From TrEMBL:
Annotated GO MF terms: metalloexopeptidase activity
Keyword Signal found: yes
PROSITE patterns from the UniProt entry: PROKAR_LIPOPROTEIN
Any one biological process term the GO annotation gives: proteolysis
PANTHER family (alphabetical): METALLOPEPTIDASE M28 FAMILY MEMBER, PEPTIDASE M28 DOMAIN-CONTAINING PROTEIN
Peptidase M28 domain span: 108-339
Keyword Ion transport recorded: no
Signal peptide (UniProt feature, chain positions): 1-26
Record protein name field: Peptidase M28 domain-containing protein
Keywords: Signal
Length: 346
């Protein structure tokens, strides 16, 4: 997840970047696997398999100067690790190159799971790059590992969804939210209309997590205003922030995704928090207002000075496997399967 100060984080949007590769959405030669008739909802993802992936990402970082950042050997090795595993599934894989704001070449990885209806699709994404200060295991090898297990299980169980599913592994989220931005800005209006939802997966291994639900109707902004007033902040200081949040682009389909995630977590008797600011702090930013969006993020927030730390060891050298809770990974996996199945059947 992109590092920013508490208030700047809430309103910052990704800068415009140039795509240097080709971006395809509904055109490929992917092999259609023989379907078993099972649905996405019948998937059972396993945290132990995800943890195995996390250990491998940590080994990659340790072998490459302690990180997996965009344009580094660790970043390239991470991409190759993903590709090596995904190619075994039989699904078509595209590598889409782009240039970020620092003139560094990144590479998005896009996997197509063909559906019965190939004119509409669900897009799921997680960034696989880390910051240069650490290995980035919770942020965001955790989301990457979850999506790898999702793809591998879809292939293993030979599940053909009702609509196609595209799984994106974004590069350079930590540098300008660049990979998803480069991809989204080159989608045509017809391609955007074909996307039933974009679901973002980020930092899902956080221990003792607070579950943040992307606030589609921005009702949380009113609550934020009350809190800032109670803390004695003057209106001239907080009004620009809140005005920026209220003006964030939205889509008519956002609310249904928010409601479905609420239903899932409430069925687990878990407390949730509606939050609008996270929409601009990760790869959802690239899709706001263009397609329905949902964000699956597990936080354990704490302040360090005037900077909001989303989870322990956030963007530091200690963001390692031992910061990740397999129970959080399992919860996030179940939530993802639930939401993808919901989108696939609506």
């Amino acid at each position: 997840m992109k590092f920013q100060s508490k208030f700047a984080m809430a309103i910052a949007l990704a800068s415009s970047l140039t795509l240097t590769g080709c971006s395809l959405f509904a055109m490929s030669t992917a092999t259609t696997l023989v379907s078993t008739g099972m649905t996405v909802g019948s998937l059972t993802l396993q945290s132990n398999r995800m943890m195995n992936h996390l250990n491998q990402f940590q080994n990659i970082a340790e072998s490459h100067q302690g990180n997996r950042a965009t344009g580094t050997k660790g970043g390239e090795a991470s991409a190759q690790y993903i590709l090596d595993h995904i190619k075994k599934t039989g699904y078509e894989v595209q590598i889409i190159a782009f240039e970020n704001r620092d003139k560094v070449i990144g590479q998005n990885i896009l996997v197509e799971i063909k559906g019965k209806d190939q004119d509409h699709a669900t897009l799921i994404g997680a960034h696989y790059d880390s910051v240069k200060m650490g290995p980035g295991i919770n942020d965001n090898a955790s989301g990457t590992a979850l999506l790898m297990d999702f793809i591998e299980e879809m292939s293993s169980k030979k599940i053909q969804p009702e609509h196609s599913i595209y799984v994106a592994f974004w590069d350079s989220e930590e540098q300008g939210i660049a990979g998803s931005q480069a991809y989204a800005e080159h989608l045509t209006e017809q391609q955007l209309k074909a996307i039933k939802a974009y679901i973002n997966v980020d930092m899902v291994g956080t221990k003792d997590p607070e579950i943040l639900i992307a606030d589609a109707d921005k009702s949380s902004v009113d609550e934020m205003e009350k809190q800032l007033q109670q803390r004695g902040m003057s209106e001239q200081d907080y009004k620009p922030l809140l005005d920026g949040l209220r003006k964030l682009p939205s889509h008519t389909g956002d609310q249904a995704l928010e409601d479905e995630l609420k239903t899932f977590f409430k069925s687990k008797n878990l407390k949730i928090k509606e939050d609008v600011s996270t929409l601009t702090a990760s790869d959802t930013a690239a899709f706001l207002g263009k397609v329905p969006v949902a964000s699956l993020i597990l936080f354990h927030e704490q302040m360090k000075g005037d900077v909001l730390e989303f989870a322990p060891c956030y963007h530091t050298i200690c963001d390692r496997v031992d910061t990740v809770d397999p129970k959080s990974m399992q919860l996030a996996a179940e939530a993802l399967v639930h939401l993808v199945d919901y989108v696939d059947h609506h």
